Amino acid sequence: MTSEDDEQDQRDDQSLREDIVRHEWAQFQGVNNEGGPANCQGNWPIFHQMRLSQFMTWPADLLSSYGDDLNQADATGRNLLTEKYGRMMESTVPDQYRRDIAPYLPKLGIERQTRQEAIIDQQVAWAKEFRERYPRLGREMRVLRTSQDTPDSTSFETYLRGELSTYSARTLGLYERMIADMVSQGRNLTAETILFTVKQNGFNSLDEAERAQS
């Protein structure tokens, strides 16, 4: 493969990432929120920055599979963003979740939940490690654990659980493989994701961004 081919692949991957973020944004606009649309539903720049940073860490096959998930959701009348935020309510407002949300969500088997929890454990460990190394940047993150959830604050753990629960079997398998590869290579997904975020804000490194925080 030539360098021109590599550059074209990179452009194709970036185009797919942008398509996925726009697709998520479209579904996000359909998420019903008590009291009307949430402030974040009107903040495209922040949504774009945060979601693009996440997808910058994903390999092409995972991107493609998740893009297919979004397309399939549209075709079958599902909204993956509605499902993701609905599942978070199991922890933040459990009574309302059991009454109004759970009956309408796809059921997840024990094997699926076990696989997700293994991923979540690893990612929470990475997030904790990142916060310890970059405490100022870490202050801008969600609280870490489900035990810290409140009706007004959703933890990283709960958010991730909600998101993983929307993935198709194929997408979850590819995501598992990405996590396993990162573990074997000594990488940290939280650090890589936030690096892409701070680069969009004009910083060259996490250390530079950490020093710039007040």
TrEMBL record:
Source organism per UniProt: Bifidobacterium [indicum] DSM 20214 = LMG 11587
InterPro entries: DUF4125
Protein name stated in the entry: DUF4125 domain-containing protein
Highest taxon of the lineage: Bacteria
